[in-house]
């Protein structure tokens, strides 16, 4: 079947929004957060058994699995809800500023945060939650302007620091049951990502809270 081309014809408001950078970024981050809620729903139905797939610090049990899956798992609906709003805000800003670079930065943060938690997390716990990645997104977006040297990136970084500056206290030990190690290593991963991805972008042509869940001793 041949369908007449609509080139040059006015597009609907919905199609214009979906086709814009902001629209695509919003759709992507909403789908990601919705997937987290779906995973938590499945985990609830299964009696929270998926939580044991998180990171077991300094244990040989499912190291790679834990690093990959821990940010996708949460210790209940309240934990997930606390991470969802900053995920939507920071994820949207990061994707809108450059989806390709943001995906690479996220991979770096994910790996650094996971490895750091495995090395330094509390013994006899299972660490789960997206907040390590969120801290990484925060520091990445806050400092990347120093490396990209783009005015907009610097302004966005300053605004985010003003809004979320209190969040950075989470890298210090304090609240029981909260993995400050995850926050700290996520923040470190964000800075590393800003250095690597920011410099890469500059040289191109034309240019919550993670929770520790009590675990069976391993």
Characterization of this structure:
The chain has 218 residues and is mainly α. Helix content is 62%, strand content 4%. It contains 9 helices and 2 strands. The protein has helices spanning 13-19, 21-45, 63-69, 77-96, 99-120, 131-143, 145-148, 151-164, 180-202; strands spanning 125-128, 211-214. A two-stranded antiparallel ribbon has the order 1-2. Helix 4 packs parallel to helix 6.
Low-confidence stretches: 1-6, 203-207, 214-218
Molecular shape: globular
How many strand elements?
Answer: 2
Largest sheet: 2 strands, antiparallel
User: Which structural class matches the secondary elements?
Assistant: mainly alpha
Task: Give me the Rg, rounded.
Answer: 19 Å
Query: Average pLDDT across residues?
Result: 84
**Tally of helical segments:** 9
Task: Give the ordered list of helices and strands.
Answer: HHHHHEHHHHE
Indicate the topology.
Blueprint: H1 13-19, H2 21-45, H3 63-69, H4 77-96, H5 99-120, E1 125-128, H6 131-143, H7 145-148, H8 151-164, H9 180-202, E2 211-214
Antiparallel strand pairs: 1-2
Short recap of the structure:
With 218 residues, the chain is mainly alpha-helical.
Descriptors:
globular, two-stranded antiparallel ribbon, 9 helices, 2 strands, 218 residues, mainly alpha
